[in-house]
Design brief:
Helix content is 41%, strand content 16%. The chain has 594 residues and is α+β, with helices and mostly antiparallel strands. The chain is globular.
Length: 594
C-alpha cells in the first residue's frame, strides 16, 4: 500500500536527508496519496502513502508514537489489525488513529520482535526506538512486500524498490556473478538476499533484522512450515481435506477484503482467480469489479482467455472490465514495465500485468489476485515427475527439471570474469533440499518453489507491476495459514487430477465445471514470445549498444549467434534465450547502470 525508505548512520554524521528525499520521490508511484519525512539523530525515514486503511491524515507516515518513543514506516496491510487493536486496547494501549500502521507500532511495544508472529498479512516495516537508537526491519512470511538494502561501513539505506536506492546514489552497481548465475539458471530468479548488483541486497522473507547503533545486527527467520504430515491432520480423507482447504481459502479471501476503499479481482478465467470471485460472491459481495487482459493472437498462438473470464463474470454477475491490447502496444509498454522492475524479470506476463494495472488503477485501489496457487498446491506440469523420486535424489531431480541450463552451458554464454568457478546455483538448490523437514521429494520441491523461487519471480512481479500504478494486489493463496495447511497436505491429493487436485475438488463445489475442468492456461504475450517486429528491434538495439559492449557480460560470438536466429535458442523449459539475455541488458540500461 506504500513505499518506504531511509538511512541509518553508524558514525557521528547526520543522515543524508537529500538522498532520503530522492529515494522517497522515486517511490511516488507506490504512494501517490501522500509524502512524509522524519529525521532525528542518526536515522532518517521517508514514506509515500497509498490510502487504503484510515483515509484521514491520522494514518500518515512516518508515524511517531510519542508515548512509546517509537517511529515507523510501513508498507502492506495487516489484515487482522482490528482484532489486534482490540487485544492491545485490553492491555492498556491507547490509539490515535484507525490505521494498521499504529497497530504495528503498539504491537512492537507490547511484544517486541515477536509481534510479527501475530500479524496476518503482507508487510515490510522499519521501526526506530528513539531512546536506544535501535532500528528493526522486518518482512512478511512469503516476501510479498519488498525491502531492499545497500550498506557501507558508515551507513545502511533501505527502500521498497531497488531503483529508489539507486536514486539515493553511491551504490555499487557492479554485477554479482553468483546472482547472474542464478538469473541464467532459474529463468531470471535471483534468490534473497542477493540481487544482480553487488551493492544491493534484500531482506529475506519471514526475517527480522535488529540493527544496533554501532552497525552490528542480528537476524532471524521467524517462520517456515515443515512440509511434513502433521499429527492434527492424521486420518483426514480426501473429502475432509477438501473441506479444510475450502474453509482456509474462504477465510483468506475474506481477510483480504479489509479496506476503507473498494476491492476488485484480477480475473484471468483460470481456476485460481475464479475461486476468489466465487468465494467473494458467497460472502455476499455485490457489484464486485473484475478485470481481465488479453493480447492479439500471433500465428496459431491465442493471446486471451476471455471466454473463461467472461463465463465466470456472467455466472457471478460481476462488474466486468475487459482489456484487449493490440500487438503494437506491447513494444511501447515494454519500456514502462522495465522501468517498474526492481530486478530484471523475463516472464512475458510482466507487460500484461503492467498494462492491466494501469487500467485497473483507474477504477479501484485494491485487487485480489490468484498468484501463488500453482506453487502452493502443485499445479505445474513438472510436479508429477517428482512423485516417484526418492527423497535423497530430490536435488538432482529438481535441477534436471527446473534449471534453464547447466553450468557448462553458462561457460559458453558469459565472459570468464563473470562466471563463478563452480555451479553456485546447483549448490544453493542442494543446500535447500538437504534442510530438515520435507518428507518427500515433492515436499522438498514445493518448499523451495514456495519460499524461494516464487518470492523472487511471480510474487515480486505482481507487486512491482501493480504498485507502479498505485494499485495494491492481495494474494489470498499466500495466506500463511493456507500455506501451512497445503504444506501438510498429502502429496497425492495435490497431484491428483493432473495437479492441484484438492483445489480443483474445492472448485467443483462453487464454480461451473467447465472452469475447473478446462485445460491449464498460461498468460501468453505472443508478441514477446515469438521475438518479432518492434520487440526484436528493441532487443537488437540493446545488445549492440555501446553500453552492452563496454559491460562485456556475454560473449560477443554468443550474442551474434542468438541474434542470427532469434527464436531458435530455448531454455530447457522452452523460454526464449535471446529474451532472457536481452532483458537483463535492457533493464541495466533503463536504470542507468553502466
Amino acid at each position: 500500500m506504500c513505499g518506504l525508505s531511509g538511512e541509518i548512520r553508524f558514525d557521528d554524521a547526520r543522515p543524508d536527508i537529500a538522498a532520503v528525499e530522492r529515494m522517497t520521490d522515486r517511490l511516488a508511484p507506490r504512494g501517490p496519496d501522500g509524502r512524509g519525512l522524519w529525521a532525528q539523530g542518526r536515522v532518517a525515514l521517508g514514506h509515500r502513502r497509498l490510502k487504503i486503511i484510515d483515509l484521514s491524515e491520522s494514518g500518515s507516515q512516518p508515524m511517531a508514537d510519542p508515548r512509546a518513543r517509537l517511529v515507523g514506516v510501513f508498507n502492506g496491510c495487516v489484515y487482522n489489525y482490528r482484532e489486534l487493536r482490540e487485544e492491545l486496547r485490553g492491555r492498556g494501549h491507547h490509539f490515535f488513529s484507525d490505521s494498521d500502521t499504529e497497530v504495528v507500532l503498539k504491537a512492537y511495544l507490547e511484544w517486541g520482535t515477536d509481534c510479527v508472529d501475530r500479524f496476518c498479512g503482507m508487510f515490510a516495516f522499519v521501526i526506530v526506538e528513539q531512546d536506544t537508537g535501535r532500528v528493526v526491519l522486518a518482512r512478511d512470511r512469503l516476501g510479498i512486500k519488498p525491502l531492499y538494502l545497500t550498506q557501507t561501513p558508515d551507513r545502511l539505506r533501505f527502500a521498497s524498490s531497488l531503483p529508489a536506492l539507486l536514486a539515493g546514489g553511491d551504490v555499487d552497481t557492479s554485477l554479482d556473478p553468483v546472482a547472474l548465475h542464478q538469473y541464467l539458471s532459474w529463468h531470471a530468479t535471483v534468490a534473497a538476499p542477493r540481487t544482480v548488483l553487488n551493492g544491493v541486497r534484500k531482506l529475506p522473507p519471514a526475517t527480522v533484522r535488529v540493527v544496533e547503533p554501532d552497525g552490528t545486527h542480528r537476524e532471524h527467520c521467524y517462520w517456515q512450515p515443515s512440509y511434513t504430515r502433521r499429527p492434527e491432520y492424521a486420518g483426514l480423507g480426501a473429502e475432509e481435506w477438501t473441506d479444510a482447504v475450502l474453509q482456509a481459502l474462504r477465510r483468506a479471501v475474506r481477510r483480504r477484503m479489509v479496506a476503507d476503499v473498494p476491492v476488485g479481482v484480477l480475473l484471468s478465467g483460470g481456476l485460481d482467480s475464479s475461486l476468489i470471485v466465487a468465494l467473494l460472491a458467497d460472502e455476499g459481495q455485490r457489484d464486485l469489479a473484475t478485470f481481465s487482459v488479453g493480447f492479439e493472437s500471433e500465428g496459431d498462438e491465442e493471446g486471451d482467455e476471455f471466454r473463461y473470464s467472461d463465463l465466470v463474470a456472467r455466472h457471478f454477475g460481476t462488474d466486468h472490465h475487459q482489456l484487449m491490447v493490440p500487438s503494437d502496444r506491447v513494444s511501447k509498454a515494454l519500456e514502462g514495465a522495465v522501468r517498474a522492475m526492481s530486478e530484471p524479470m523475463m516472464s512475458h506476463d510482466v507487460v500484461a500485468f503492467h498494462l492491466l494495472s494501469e487500467q485497473v488503477a483507474k477504477e479501484v485501489k485494491v485487487v485480489q489476485s490468484g498468484q501463488g496457487a500453482d506453487e502452493v498446491f502443485a499445479g505445474y506440469h513438472w510436479y508429477p515427475a517428482m512423485a516417484d523420486v526418492p527423497r535423497e535424489r530430490a536435488a538432482d531431480a529438481y535441477l534436471d527439471t527446473y534449471s534453464d541450463r547447466s553450468h557448462a552451458d553458462l561457460a559458453r554464454m558469459l565472459e570468464p570474469g563473470l562466471l563463478p568457478d563452480r555451479d553456485t546455483s546447483g549448490e544453493f538448490v542442494r543446500a535447500h533440499m538437504a534442510a530438515p523437514g520435507a518428507e518427500t521429494a515433492l515436499d522438498a520441491d514445493l518448499r523451495l518453489d514456495t519460499h524461494v523461487m516464487m518470492v523472487d519471480d511471480p510474487v515480486k512481479r505482481v507487486d512491482n507491476m501493480t504498485m507502479d500504478w498505485g494499485l495494491e494486489a492481495r494474494v489470498p493463496f499466500l495466506d500463511h495459514e493456507l500455506v501451512e495447511l497445503a504444506a501438510a497436505c498429502p502429496p497425492e491429493l495435490k497431484l491428483a487430477d493432473g495437479g492441484k487436485g484438492v483445489l480443483k475438488a474445492a472448485g467443483r463445489r462453487v464454480l461451473p465445471r467447465e472452469v475447473v475442468d478446462r485445460p491449464k492456461g498460461y498468460f501468453p504475450v505472443p508478441a514477446i514470445k515469438h521475438m518479432a517486429g518492434p520487440v526484436l528491434e528493441r532487443v537488437r538495439e540493446a545488445l549492440t549498444a555501446p553500453e552492452a559492449r563496454a559491460r562485456g557480460v556475454f560473449r560477443r560470438e554468443y550474442v551474434a549467434e542468438l541474434l542470427a536466429a532469434p527464436n531458435a535458442h530455448r531454455t530447457r523449459r522452452g523460454a526464449n534465450t535471446l529474451w532472457q539475455v536481452a532483458l537483463l541488458e535492457i533493464w541495466l540500461q533503463t536504470h542507468g547502470i553502466r
